[in-house]
Amino acid sequence: MQRIREPENLIVDLSRTLVPGESSFPEDPPFLVLPWHQHNVHGFATQVLFLPEHAATHVDVPRHFFKDAWGVEAIALERFFGRARALDPERLPRPLEETLLRKLNVAEGDIVLFVGNPKLTEEDARALLACGVKGVGVEAESIDEPPFPLHRLFLKAGVLIYENLTGVAHLVGKDILFFGFPLKISSATASPVRAVAIILPSEDASGLP
Question: Is residue 206's pLDDT more than 60?
Fold first, then answer.
């Protein structure tokens, strides 16, 4: 990978802010921030976080749907970053096809991010899998609905799923490097992430992983 240069590169924050009292899904407990040490008592301050795995911007890993599959801590770090392509589903013919995706320069090892809620079908998911992507991301709270066929297809294949992203529209048509590192939590089914993208000059694109 070529060295990232400044100030030519632009970093885009793709993460939603964790706000106390909010929950990503109605059945999940809310995110809580509890004061622990206090300035006027201890001379410093700390807080305790009650944080659901799937809160705000997060990554789903295979253990989310498959009991004996990898948890967050067992997955190699290179799976959580790499070359990415941002796509606007409103500008794409549906269903997606492998040929179409390759014309859009989606290649093996890419992470594909979608603007909004693309409402992907199983056929769309199979086309992405055929391209060899290692991650997909959406701005919706979930990539699909019960009985969660896309979660099962992607996670069974080891493809990570990023949900609750924001700002993906800024990346459409750009050469980007995506980072979505989780907390190293033992046996976790998911983890909140600080998802960011670095927009690269076109001459750097060939050096992306």
Answer: no
